[in-house]
Amino acid sequence: MSKKIIFYVVAANLALLVLLTFLYPQWMVAPGPPIAAHASLETDCFACHTPFIGSRPAKCMHCHQPAEIGLITTTGLPIANERKLVPFHQDLIEQDCVACHSDHKGVQAFRPIGQFSHALLQVKTRDQCNGCHSNPGDSLHREVVAQCSQCHSPQSWTPATLDHDRFFRFDQDHQTACATCHMDQDYSRYTCYGCHEHSRSNIREEHVEEGIYDYENCVECHRTGEAEEHEHGRAGGDARREREVGLAPSRMRQDFWEQSRNRHGEHDDDDD
Fold it and tell me: Among candidates 17, 20, 40, which has minimal Cα distance to 103?
């Protein structure tokens, strides 16, 4: 077979492939079925895609107006229960739909969202976490009055970057699991009696000698657990640390002794 014949055969196949791609793109190049809301467009690829360019925001905005997302349906009807999570589209730096959305994930796809970067939001919106996110209901977050960004980063929401040293500095003797000090996943309270087998009567005499009569909140003086630190630990006290971290005052102190006593009740008789 001559080279000319081979050339024409290859060219004809390529031409046929290109033609079929334009005529039946849903069979030739579609990565999968679109979501149910776009089912009517499954055979009309060019409703969303431009040949040799791809999906452009202008195509999306034929149906989805950024100012109406989450407020009005694509048919113009008002949404009865305004969706809290989506009106942030009005605060995007630029309209680049495919930066987050990727449709072809199947008819039953839960969320046709590939990824989201907070850098796409205007600066004034990035710290308004409650605009999209609900306040956590756990015991610790209920007491937080500071901004989310004090512990969390939009680049990596978990793990949180809580500076534990503002409460208690971990020395070589205190590298332990959270549950040792914080019981029942209540991180707004703590006990030192997960390791230290003390009771009020055991520690009363030594503390009274130092002129300390309120010794239920250990970390107010013992910031690292070192015995010498009580001489300097009271400067500033618990209220300052709570303000720094954003906790409502006195929560760390509340019910501390009762919690510790319940955990190590065998020592209570020493007070009699």
Answer: 40
CA distance linking residue 138 with residue 15, whole number of Å? 62
- The span from the CA of 167 to the CA of 220, in Å, is 9
Q: Give the residue carrying structure tokens 């070192």.
A: 226
The distance from CA 3 to its chain's CA centroid, rounded to whole angstroms, is 62
User: 193 is in which domain, residue-wise?
Assistant: 164-271
Residue-level pLDDT at 164: 78
Low-confidence residues of the chain: pLDDT under 70: 1, 25-30, 81-87, 105-115, 197-200, 225-272
The amino acid present at 45, given as its one-letter code, is C
Q: Are residues 122 and 215 in the same domain?
A: no
Interatomic CA distance for residues 258 and 190, integer angstroms? 11
CB-CB contact of 166 with 231 (8 Å):
no
For the whole prediction, is pTM greater than 0.85? no
User: Which residues are within 8 A (CB) of 65 and not within 5 positions of it... i.e. 6 or more apart?
Assistant: 72
Helices (H) and strands (E) in the chain, counts: 9, 2
How many other β-carbons are positioned within 10 Å of the β-carbon of residue 240? 12
Answer yes or no: do 125 and 204 share one domain. no
Query: How many structural domains is the chain composed of?
Result: 2
Q: Distance (Å, rounded) from C-alpha 110 to C-alpha 114?
A: 11
Distance separating alpha carbons of residues 135 and 187, to the nearest angstrom? 16
| Angle, alpha carbons 221-224-228 (nearest 5°) | 60
